[in-house]
């Protein structure tokens, strides 16, 4: 899964911490320094807000907090690997 972030974004920092603390494997992609990542994030989410999470099944969670992230993982039955 790919987590699109802006490094200074407090919700991004919380999302990274939440995923790491629970043992999730993910790729972090900085949309401020990577124009390809920024374009991909806009393509899949229709907006420019972070954090945005893309999972392998194609589902996307955009502009979220950790409570919404937890619910998304529960709904999609995504467990740490």
Keywords:
alpha+beta; single chain; 81 residues; Glutaredoxin; 17% strand
Brief rundown of the structure:
With 81 residues, this protein is an alpha+beta fold. The chain has helices spanning 10-21, 35-45, 66-75; strands spanning 2-5, 27-30, 52-54, 60-62.
CA-CA gap between termini: 12 Å
What CATH first level would be assigned?
Answer: Alpha Beta
Structural class: alpha+beta
CATH architectural group:
3-Layer(aba) Sandwich
What name does CATH use for the topology? Answer: Glutaredoxin
- Please work out how many helical segments DSSP would assign: 3
Descriptive report:
This protein is an alpha+beta fold and 81 residues long. It has a single domain (2-75), classed as 3-Layer(aba) Sandwich (Glutaredoxin), CATH 3.40.30.10. Helices cover 41% and strands 17% of the residues. The chain has helices at residues 10-21, 35-45, 66-75, and strands spanning 2-5, 27-30, 52-54, 60-62. The protein has a four-stranded mixed β-sheet, with helices on both faces. The chain is globular, with a radius of gyration of 12 Å.
């Amino acid at each position: 899964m790919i987590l699109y972030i802006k490094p200074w974004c407090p919700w991004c920092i919380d999302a990274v911490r939440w995923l790491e603390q629970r043992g999730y494997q993910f790729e972090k992609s900085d949309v401020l320094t990577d124009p390809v990542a920024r374009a991909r994030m806009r393509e899949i989410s229709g907006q420019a807000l972070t954090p945005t999470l893309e999972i392998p099944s194609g589902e996307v969670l955009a502009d979220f907090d950790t409570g919404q992230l937890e619910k998304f993982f529960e709904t999609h039955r995504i467990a740490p690997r």
